[in-house]
User: Fold Iron starvation induced protein from Phaeodactylum tricornutum.
Amino acid sequence: MKLLLSAFSFFLAPALAVTANTKDQYHLRDDDHIGPAMWVFGDEGLKIYSPDGKSLRKSTSAERVCHETSGYRGSTEVTLSCSFYDVVSDGKKFVWAAVSRGSSKIDVFSIDTGDIVGSFETCNTPRDLEYHPLRDEMWVRCLGVTENEVSYMDVFSVQSPTVDSTTRILMSDNTTDNSYGYMAIDNTMGDVGYTTMWGSPFLYKIGLSEKVVLEKFDIELAHGGYELAYSPVNQHIFVRALTCCTCGFEGADLGVDCGRYGTELVNITTGPSAGQNNVDGQCGRCDGSVADTLGVYEFDTNAETFVGKHLMEDGLGGDPFASPDGKYIVMFGRNGGRSVRVLEAGNPGKVSTVAFDIKLDFNTTSVEDDAVFNDFAFIQDGEREMIVLASGNENKLVLIDPKSSNPSTSYISFRDGDISSDGTRRQVEWAVGTNYVWVDGADASEVYIIDVGTKQVVETLTNVNSTKMVFVQNYERTRLQNMITGESGFGSDSSSTERAFGANYEDDNDIDAVGIISLILATVALAVGVVNLVVMKNRKPQSHGQPTSSINTSSKMDEEVSLGSKNVA
Ligand SMILES: *[C@@H]1O[C@H](CO)[C@@H](O)[C@H](O)[C@H]1NC(C)=O
Ligand SMILES: *[C@@H]1O[C@H](CO)[C@@H](O)[C@H](O)[C@H]1NC(C)=O
Ligand SMILES: *[C@@H]1O[C@H](CO)[C@@H](O)[C@H](O)[C@H]1NC(C)=O
Ligand SMILES: *[C@@H]1O[C@H](CO)[C@@H](O)[C@H](O)[C@H]1NC(C)=O
Assistant:
């Protein structure tokens, strides 16, 4: 087969070389291929834009991608729900979207065309998606269960999404309970993963082969566990611990106002009221209160033990988010955005250290005790390393350079006038490999595309109400392109895709169209390598390609290319 293909490729070679020169050579684009692009999901369905936002490559209506749901919170009214809680790409075939509250479907799109491949049955109200490259599986974490499949987690094979396998992963025996929680699933943990449940004080270890809960680890003193961040650097998990607190009376942890959820009788284990039992209060909604003293527990997945915990500078908890390479864990607290804490992952078994606390210059008026960051982007390639945060209380973002010992900050305003964020739900997404960062302003139905090099807004999209923006790139194609342009070490097999996905495409038995094309292209690259090198070395990638410096730093980039601008478990 390989011989045949390489013979074939000699005929194709000249044609392809021409194609690569006359078309968008960097992206291997052709008429039905959308190339690396920002996929914007929301009330209007799916819109796919070029990385600079200047061209709309594809649009699919809400009717085609959202799902009708009824009966949520007792309502019988049927509505189209386009919440798009999580969207994840496998980087080679599909883009997977957890769309609608109250629905048990997951949408799958073609990574190359943006077309919807199908809506597949899964557990109820899918919330969190994680791709496991070695197993080639997409894991789904749901809020509820369905009658057909009593499980809070489900799994799809990326090779054949239509084939459903049965899971029975239950963190609670009472399946009428909602099970808010997140997952950590990664190549470096092998065939186990971890998950949390909002009202349950355990970190659950999941057998990905057995598809059951294997074990659970006590999150001491906590009411539950919630957000998870995972660092492949030390194979540690960072779990946000939730607590109980008093409220509804003078001097209570939360004060006299209990908010919309009212009070129940609770036992307090943390903060100034610790030790009080059967007092008025609430659980799981105490973030930022004086009882929020557990913060983030750090769990060593090798030794299967907690090694320490982390608080914000003010001694209260924060939510953890990992950089794509897992080197940093960024913690957001409830402080209006005054500061963030950045941890640096240490050695396996050792508690991670505080890299720095950074004071930020955001307007905290009327949000002093609120979370204003809900998302961030981590720009990591070649020589650059930058944390990008945008406050939900101001139309401004900050660029933080984490590399120096005294990290510098710079600010970019992207809109005059009213705050355009939909509450604190401001999204930030990096168009990986480019200078463009996308920030949404859903309350004004806007999206801003900011060049972090020139610090200018290059484009403002209007009439786009986004709930999820994800940069999608077919890394398999990019790898081939890089081979042709000789950028990632010509003929070397240390490709970004294999590093990023741990997948070995050559061993793939299922030789599909892409597989065949890749074989052809690989041999073409070898056969006409010299020609390509001569012709293409002079052609620098376009502005929306990887930075030109990548030619010198390709091996570093290979290691750092990831599926996105963050690694939110
Ligand atoms: C299960 O959970 C529901 C809703 O939280 C609750 O009303 C019910 O009493 C629970 N049942 C059991 C057996 O705990
Ligand atoms: C609080 O603690 C008491 C024992 O001191 C126990 O009987 C009760 O069930 C606990 N309440 C809750 C809500 O856990
Ligand atoms: C800060 O935010 C408050 C509340 O949104 C607003 O009234 C005030 O004008 C803002 N201040 C500045 C300097 O932008
Ligand atoms: C955009 O969507 C958000 C969340 O669904 C909503 O709160 C907001 O009002 C919407 N904005 C517009 C202009 O439709």
